[in-house]
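Researcher: Next entry in the queue.
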Amino acid sequence: MSLYNRLSLKARLLVDSLPRRLTVALGALIAVIAVGTAGYMGITRMTFVDALYQTVTTLTTVGFREVQPFGTGTKLFTIVLILAGVGTVLYTLSLVIEQALEGDIRSRFYLRRTRMRIEELSEHYVLCGFGRVGQEIARELNERGVGFVVIDQTPEAVERARAFGYLVVEGDASDERVLIQANIARARCLLAASDSDSGNTYITLTAKSINPSCFVVARVARPHNEEKLRLAGADRVLSLYSLGGRRMVLSALQPLAADFMDTLASGRSGDLVLAEFEASETNGLAGKTVSELISGARNATLLGVRQPGGALTVGPHENTVLGNGDIIILLADEADIASMQAPVRTTG
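Model: Structure for this entry, 348 residues:
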């Protein structure tokens, strides 16, 4: 696309974004100036510049003297131009000022409302970076009904995130002031999804310094930077290239297994929900066996148990005893999941 075509497209988009009455007023103003310029050129034989100058000084009522002495015909034309044009100029200027003030007020209210909504969040997710990966992450979080805040410093990305209706903080996510605006102190998880490994490292360091308990998932492009991100405090480091390669191999060798993994990743399969929760003495699950956990469930499949040390047991035996702090991963309906997590009441 040529430069002229790009400029023409931007001009059309700008006009389309203006309110209709302002567009009409600007069109009327341009028409009045064009008629005035043409009139002076035709009546007095002025040059184009002199005629345009005379028209503008007449419409703006600045009081400068005429470019050349006016005859009767020119004076009558000037009277008509003043009566028709001055009102148009004033009306257009009032609309321009109104639009500017209204847009500024609207922007201030929007930012204030966004800050208030973010301040009310708790156990939410903070997404740093709204590029191609960030957009997919935001879409998934939004579909699952999870509260989250997007941070990005690119104006285009910020506008795109706001167009989706997401909560957005504009700025550098490695700046602690920006993370504080995103309410990182009360966040459950931070996702460092920027395109820069060094940027994700600084984001992780800053987030952990403010909220050490925040779970950090960081994206890495170069494998040799994984250890740096872990040292910075990232709880999970994901290489999209490695994940993509494994996923392609799995699709080629075991396509049904790949489809199964996609179903689990979606978080829901029909009426069943993929969930994870902790076994503790408070909810009465610590000390129970796996068979006791799912004995009262109508439709539940225990996929795995992760011990506090990080060891993950896939498809644990039914006699496996759940310990305090174990994370249970299962596929079940919401009613069964709610009943499993309900605290056990003792009578005494």
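Model: The domain at 3-115 is CATH 1.10.287.70 (Helix Hairpins).
Researcher: Noted, moving on.
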